[in-house]
Predict the structure of GNAT family N-acetyltransferase.
Amino acid sequence: MKHRKTFHSIEHTGKENRKFTIAGPISTEAIEQAEFDEGLKAFRNPDKQKEALINVSKLEESRIIAATEGNKIVGYAVYLYPDEMERWSQYNYENLIELGAIEVSKDYRGHALAKHILQVTMMDPAVEDYIIITTEYYWHWDLRGTGLSIWEYRDIMEKVMNSGGLIWYATDDPEICSHPANCLMARVGSRVPNDSVHEFDRVRFQNRYMI
């Protein structure tokens, strides 16, 4: 499958009249040349995370959408094929990609950047050829930093994902089923063929008693 990517960019005014650009898919060179905010450390320290994004950006299927203030990346989302250790890698076509990470610097929360990152993602017509999934696990959420309960965080997260067209999907995946706050969310593009939808259903449900 040829991974067509069309660059889109919007300007967004956040709180206190702060100006942001949300754009992508951005290139390896753009990531290399940008500053990387020190608050982007949910997954690893900022230097290592920038290095990881540079490496991911070189993958043919990857898409990275970034929110910037000036020349500083303050938020991003990464889309790529599921890790081979995940159930979703068993999907037998090339038109399923995973929202593997979405992060906004703790110093830039409250500007609706995650919502706008997802909206820019969906501006690319090529997304209609894909099933886009995200797996949400409560142990990855910044409950301490936000002061939110599990269910408050889940509600906000679900609304953000809904803004990009991702909705809740049932599954019998053991890791997701291990806690009621965990969930699978997905967006099935309008040009995704029926056999791909059936394959997605097969991967979602592997315990025949759950179907």
